[in-house]
Write a structure and sequence with these properties.
about 80% helix; elongated
């Protein structure tokens, strides 16, 4: 008879406890809704930035045409404003890629373009960091174009370049 008691104790120990499974399934299902909020929020920010950049582009063009002046200074102002709008579009693109990436990773497969392959969080981080490098470079170019000689552009350039180098080193080490 002691063998039967040992067998019952072994069976009780080896059977899985399903009480935690329901809890974990509930968390997994609710986290999907949390990521849906993240996707919607980052998409809305992206749309707002794209619209703002478009309206700003039209405003810059209209102001340039109505106050037309054939000078190097007005050309530099137009170029710097245009580069800042491009920087705004790049930031909007970052938010858009983040929303697509979160959707792809945590909700369902998305119809992504061929160049945007996101299999895990590292892929998403690499894409975002690459765009951050481009945005920082464009920002530095915009500041360099409007530099009037009085401000300390060297400190800004070194800080921006250090950020770009750090991000590039991180990406290089990861891959």
């Amino acid at each position: 008879m002691p063998a039967d008691n040992e067998q019952q104790e072994t069976d009780a120990v080896c059977q899985s406890d399903d009480t935690g499974r329901f809890f974990m399934n509930s968390i997994a299902i609710s986290s999907r809704w949390l990521f849906l909020l993240t996707v919607i929020g980052s998409t809305l920010i992206s749309i707002a930035l794209f619209i703002y950049g478009f309206l700003l582009s039209i405003t810059i063009i209209i102001v340039s045409l109505t106050t037309y002046e054939l000078s190097l200074e007005s050309m530099k102002i137009f170029m710097a404003s245009s580069i800042q709008v491009i920087d705004l579009f790049l930031v909007a693109t970052v938010f858009y890629i983040v929303s697509l990436g979160f959707y792809e990773l945590f909700i369902a497969k998305a119809p992504l373009p061929g160049w945007l392959k996101i299999c895990d969080l590292d892929d998403l981080k690499t894409k975002v960091l690459g765009l951050v490098i481009i945005a920082l470079s464009v920002l530095l170019l915009g500041v360099a174009l409007t530099w009037d000689g009085s401000s300390d552009i060297l400190a800004f350039g070194l800080a921006t370049s250090s950020g770009i180098i750090a991000i590039a080193a991180y990406i290089w080490v990861k891959h």
